[in-house]
Amino acid sequence: MGNDGNTRAVVLGGSLGGLFAARVCADVYDEVVIVDRDLLVGVREPRRGCPQGRHISGLLTRGQRAIESMYPGITEELFADGVPKGDLAGTVRWYVRGKRLKQRNADMLCVGASRPMLEYHVRRRTEALGNVRFAERHDILGLEATPDRRKITGVRVQNLDADNGVEVIEADLVVDATGRGSRTPIWLEDLGYQRVKEDRKKIGLGYVTQHYRLRNDPYRGDLSINGVAWPKLPRGILFAKTDGDRAEMTTYGILGDHPPTDQAGLFEFIRSLGIPEIYEAVTQAEPLEDPVRFSFPTTLRRRYEDMDRFPDGLLVVGDAVTTFNPVYAGGMTVAALSALTIREHLHSGAAPQPLDYFRDLARNVIDPPWQMTHNVDLGFPGVEGKRPLSLKFEQAFMALVQTAAARDSRVTAGYMRVAGQVEHPSTLMKPKFVLRVLLAAAGLTKPSPDRPRGRTAETAGQSRVSVS
Length: 468
Ligand SMILES: Cc1cc2nc3c(=O)[nH]c(=O)nc-3n(C[C@H](O)[C@H](O)[C@H](O)COP(=O)(O)OP(=O)(O)OC[C@H]3O[C@@H](n4cnc5c(N)ncnc54)[C@H](O)[C@@H]3O)c2cc1C
What we know:
Blueprint: E1 8-12, H1 16-25, E2 31-35, H2 61-70, H3 74-80, E3 85-87, E4 92-96, E5 99-100, E6 109-111, H4 115-127, E7 132-135, E8 138-145, E9 152-159, E10 166-170, E11 173-176, H5 184-190, E12 198-213, E13 224-227, E14 235-242, E15 246-253, H6 263-271, H7 276-284, E16 286-287, E17 292-302, E18 314-316, E19 322-323, H8 331-346, H9 354-377, H10 389-405, H11 409-419, H12 431-441
Parallel strand pairs: 1-2, 1-11, 2-7, 4-13, 11-18
Antiparallel strand pairs: 3-6, 4-5, 8-9, 9-10, 12-15, 12-16, 12-17, 13-14, 14-15, 17-19
């Protein structure tokens, strides 16, 4: 509680995880303060505290729906600002296991926003709430607690401009959204709590990204052309139209097989992916900057839900809890769903019980995509981990789904509804779907036509392509 008797939530980190958390806290607390070491307000460019802003950021349909529920109308605002749209199964051209999947609109809206564009709009709407204040250019130094250390009462911050002064911002609730480098595990240990268990998986992922002004149109009505890494070729690519009439290309390799950043080497890496329309488009395009690299050695999950004791007045969200393999594009969606989980706990009337929140978050938000993406990663022989018989069965079935999707667009639609986190992975095991997969994989069904059709034909081919 502040000196004036008002209630206050302080959110540590003003990236997407922090903005979503601030959004739900603003409904309940008189004041919400977002602390970040970067300048945030009005920023439309990639920023230092969010290096992933230079790379492609796919927003899964479940995440888009969660964001829309927190900020009604934001999706249309993005489209009005020049963001192209599509359908994950209908106007995204997927190459999986070396084969092109059949396309079919499946009511799986894709928002082709660059990361800075999405963050700008979410920040603008958060700012407009009226009771949210930004403490920009402030470094977060540590937590303040009651003498018995059972409750967090505020946060110590240092102003990076002016006099470098240190101050304490008192809080009824602190939400840590400082991302993968979160220091909550250390702060808790310093306060006498056990060290949170961490799961890490080495994936040795390397990203390289470049933006282009295109001189030909490889999309022909599609939003994006994506090649997925698989054991025979552990390299992939995402090549999408994005805001500013640009094409955004991120290519990647796992287990150390990283794309180079020199232009000729990068084009050669792209050629090796065997998707000629991408190679031709980028080699004929005007590059808008030098290629940019990002290394991502391990995934990371902090198991707060397994702790016996946790102080009141503190929650953790987003990448500070789990950083997923970014290739599966789940981080922003999980950050949005973390905020919705906080909202449920805030609306119970009392202050949220941290361990109840963490257990709900783990069970309902993190476990399904964590398990699914972990299993896909284990399909690469070089990724360490246990491979029980059940996993081998699941991987063999997924290979059948992917083979079938290259023939039957309804299989693509079902597969993408799971990949987009709109449906639970178990829906792929429904008998009717399994039968469809088996028949299509065995070549016993008529191949679907090449052009997309389906439930939301409205989204097909609507995004503009700019060819100079
Ligand atoms: C290369 C890459 C590609 C990705 N691609 C995708 C994708 O395609 N789709 C997707 O959904 N997700 C993707 N993600 C994940 C996604 O970016 C995150 O899940 C999302 O940004 C939510 O993270 P966050 O807000 O919890 O943390 P972050 O985005 O890491 O933000 C942390 C914030 O805390 C601030 N901060 C940290 N420490 C301090 C401190 N001590 N003092 C002050 N401020 C501090 C930082 O400045 C920053 O603003 C990708 C991630 C990476 C790394």
